[in-house]
Amino acid sequence: MRISVHVNGAEAQADCWEGESLLYALREQLGFPGSKNACEQGECGSCSVLLDGVLVCSCLVLAAQADGHDVTTVEGLAEGEELHPVQAAFVRAGAVQCGFCTPGLVVAAADLLRWNPQPSTDEIREALSGNLCRCTGYEKIFEAVRLAAEDDRG
Ligand code: FES
Ligand code: FES
Predict the structure, then answer these.
(1) Contact 32, 23 (CB under 8 A)
(2) What pLDDT, in 10s, does the model give residues 116-150?
(3) What contacts 32, CB < 8 A, 6 or more positions away?
(4) CA–CA distance from 107 to each of 15, 22, 47, 74, 145 (Å)?
(5) What φ, ψ does residue 37 adopt, rounded to 5°?
(6) How far is the CA of 112 from the centre of ligand 1 (A)?
(7) SS3 content of the chain, % helix, strand, coil (to 5)
(8) Is any ligand 2 atom within 6 A of the Cβ of residue 135?
(9) How far away, in angstroms, is 122 Cα from ligand 2 center?
């Protein structure tokens, strides 16, 4: 089947089989490899994207379900050369090690700050609880989200 998805502000089309995941279509067909495929079971959050503004694991969404809808991936967060505040804060805080979890965490953190610009540490923990990182121990990640929130306030 042919699907047409609005990805990061532009229309994109792909030929998918009925069981194909949105993650696979984004990475392998539509040219957006930023979302990572770590578990393909909805456990790790590395594939997080916004579907019509709602945070989802793209490995759990069929590509067909995204037909005619809006998808924002990590590639869609920066504005030209200017990093999204969460991306910049991850760099400043040193919250990236292997980087495999980073795209999903950045999308989830950006989503959190959209709805809650000044989250407490508990709220950050809760919002990112679906995103697993095997490298950092999370403290730098939480610090990055706090930095991004402060930047927003400044
Ligand atoms: S790859 Fe989707 S949740 Fe892990
Ligand atoms: S930085 Fe390696 S999994 Fe998070």
Answers:
(1) no
(2) 999 999 999 999 999 999 999 999 999 999 999 99
(3) 7, 8, 26, 73, 75
(4) 26, 16, 9, 6, 11
(5) -110, 100
(6) 19
(7) 40, 20, 40
(8) yes
(9) 21
13 forms beta bridges with 4
Torsion of CA 119, 125, 129, 131, to 10 degrees: 80
Does residue 49 have its Cβ closer than 6 Å to ligand 1? no
Q: Are 141 and 103 in contact (CB under 8 A)?
A: no
* Mean of pLDDT over the chain: 96
pLDDT per residue as tens digits for the range 29-70: 999 999 999 999 999 999 999 999 999 999 999 999 999 999
- DSSP annotation of 120 reads -
CA distance between the termini of the chain: 48
